[in-house]
Write a structure and sequence with these properties.
The chain has 537 residues and is mostly helical. It folds into two domains: 59 residues, no CATH class; 453 residues, no CATH class. The protein is 54% helix and 3% strand. The strands form two sheets. A two-stranded antiparallel ribbon has the order 1-2. The chain has a two-stranded antiparallel ribbon with strand order 3-4. Strand 1 and strand 2 form a beta hairpin. Helix 8 packs parallel to helix 11, helix 12 packs parallel to helix 15 and helix 21 runs antiparallel to helix 23.
Length: 537
């Protein structure tokens, strides 16, 4: 170096301490959260700070982004299992018979309640009978009523298969076989749901494209810790995320099949077909095929997805409906007769005002006809507004944006918002609005609603909380979801603020719609044409 200082015109040669790799390719287009997101940058300080300007991206052999995301998911699923473990602890009763320790409202005090545990006996799965064939009598208001399995077919069959595995495990010499059968059943269900959640994260990460690290918000969501094993909803999230990934890969038939199967587990995956149809309606040209068009026509793709979803749904439901029509219809009957859920906006209004509802005071077996009608009309009105936005916005919205709005509208207007339903929104929100601070704030608020809910169920007589403490937090949750919807709509009308569309991206999850320009001659009536942006002065 002394010689270099003496002769400044002499170039200084820097040698690599090891021979460079033969392949120096780098995934430079991948989003780097440690450099583009202030929250992630701060979290990276303990491990060396943000990635360097000249770092080679995408060359790690083992800890790839996908494996890191799945590792995060396994960790948070473990937290979720431990959160429910208090409800599968065993203790002997006064006669020495071993049973679950649910004495004195333990399931609420420990906030470990899960539908899986009581349903094992309530749905008579412990008897080993086929769910939709088995019937029993319950008394409500002193009146007998014949009951069957209350879940859609895929969810019901999943419970049946899990029951069979639990019974086989119980009589085997395998570790843990000495536990109560319901405890084994819960663990079998939890393992299957965990695999479904890993599929959800895998599909969401691939759907995010260059922003794969956005899926970390799914893996690290507080809602996973609280609700991963509250019910069986992770089955539906796996099918929904898989359907969106198949659509992204321009496989509309596979997308429809997965969404149809998801609709046979829970209803909401079928709702995603609406945004697909709206965006394809907008992209379709008038008249004959344009010779410049490359790839599958949008309406044909949407038609293929909708038709395959219907076929898949029928293929699963038709055999059960034909063999056990009463058992198959039980899910639909209960949903029509079910009153306003504690988490619904209708119950919130009743809680604070004393309003008796649209139908007045009803008995347990009377269907809330007016409530059903109003909630359906409100949802249809919301869908009409979302469709208008999708068709008339100056730039075509991204599929994830409309999908999030539709599912959020369904939850906000529906008479039932079971607490675990919030997990439906997590993958869609991450794809629609990948702002980490905002999403983590909403998820935390939504997860914390579980605390007053459990203590409200405990009851004031057992040192629980009054109903208004619980419904007040529900209002905060609803306002947070509405705020997310407002932000999504804002970014639809101001696409320059959409972080996904920076660097020239269009719609990474759009499939046949990605980078397709809006037609100059749409086939829709002129009042549904996209509104042209105002000229810049």
């Amino acid at each position: 170096m002394e010689e270099a200082r003496a002769q400044p015109d002499t170039p200084v040669v820097y040698e690599s301490p090891a021979p460079p790799a033969a392949d120096l390719q780098s995934v430079d287009d991948r989003d780097k959260p440690s450099r583009t997101d202030t929250l992630t940058a701060q979290l990276c300080d303990p491990i060396g700070g943000p990635v360097g300007d000249h770092a080679v991206i995408g060359r790690v052999r083992f800890w790839t982004p996908m494996r890191v995301l799945l590792a995060f998911a396994v960790l948070f699923l473990a937290f979720g299992w431990f959160g429910k473990a208090g409800c599968i602890q065993q203790r002997p009763d006064a006669s020495g018979v071993m049973g679950l320790d649910w004495n004195n409202g333990r399931q609420y005090l420990a906030m470990c309640y899960s539908d899986t545990v009581p349903l094992y006996g309530a749905e008579h799965l412990n008897e080993g009978a086929f769910p939709y064939k088995k019937q029993w009598v319950e008394f409500s208001d002193g009146k007998p009523q014949v009951r069957y399995m209350e879940y859609p077919v895929v969810s019901g069959l999943y419970q049946y298969i899990s029951m069979g595995i639990a019974k086989a495990w119980k009589v085997s010499p395998l570790p843990g076989s000495s536990a109560l059968e319901v405890v084994i059943y819960f663990n079998v269900v939890a393992i299957g749901l965990s695999l479904a959640w890993l599929v959800t994260i895998w599909a969401t990460a691939l759907s995010a494209g260059r922003r794969i690290w956005d899926a970390a918000l799914v893996a690290l969501s507080p809602l996973v810790v609280v609700h991963a094993f509250t019910n069986f909803d992770l089955l539906a999230t796996a099918f929904a995320a898989g359907g969106l990934l198949a659509w992204r890969r321009r496989q509309p038939v596979l997308a429809g099949i997965l969404l149809g199967l998801g609709g046979a587990a829970k209803l909401y995956p079928l709702l995603l077909l609406g945004p697909i149809l709206i965006l394809c309606l907008r992209a379709e040209r008038r008249g004959e095929d344009d010779p410049s068009w490359a790839g599958l026509r949008p309406l044909r793709a949407a038609g293929a997805a909708i038709a395959s979803a219907a076929i898949a749904w029928l293929a699963v439901n038709a055999p059960i409906a034909a063999l056990y029509p009463n058992g198959w219809w039980e899910f639909f009957r209960l949903n029509s007769e079910r009153h306003a859920d504690p988490d619904s906006i209708y119950n919130v209004i009743t809680s604070f005002t004393g309003w008796t509802g649209f139908d007045g005071v009803l008995t347990a077996q009377e269907a809330p006809t007016w409530l059903n009608t109003v909630s359906l009309l409100l949802f249809l009105a919301a869908c009409t507004g979302i469709g208008w936005i999708g068709l008339t916005a100056a730039r075509r919205p991204r599929l994830a944006q409309l999908a999030f709005l539709v599912v959020a509208a369904f939850l906000l207007t529906n008479k039932v918002w079971s607490p675990q339903y919030s997990i439906w929104l997590v993958p869609l929100a991450v794809l629609a609005l990948p702002h980490r601070r905002i999403l983590l704030a909403w998820m935390t608020i939504d997860a914390l609603v579980w605390v007053p809910r459990m203590y409200y169920y405990l009851g004031p007589d057992h040192k629980g909380l009054p109903e208004q403490w619980f419904t007040g937090t529900v209002v905060l949750r609803d306002l947070a979801v509405i705020a997310l919807c407002v932000l999504v709509i804002r970014q639809i009308y101001r696409p320059g603020e959409d972080v996904v569309r920076r660097d020239g991206a269009d719609d990474p999850g759009g499939g046949v719609l990605d980078r397709v320009p809006d037609p100059h001659d749409p086939w829709l009536p002129s009042w549904l044409w996209p509104r042209q942006p105002e000229p810049v002065p």
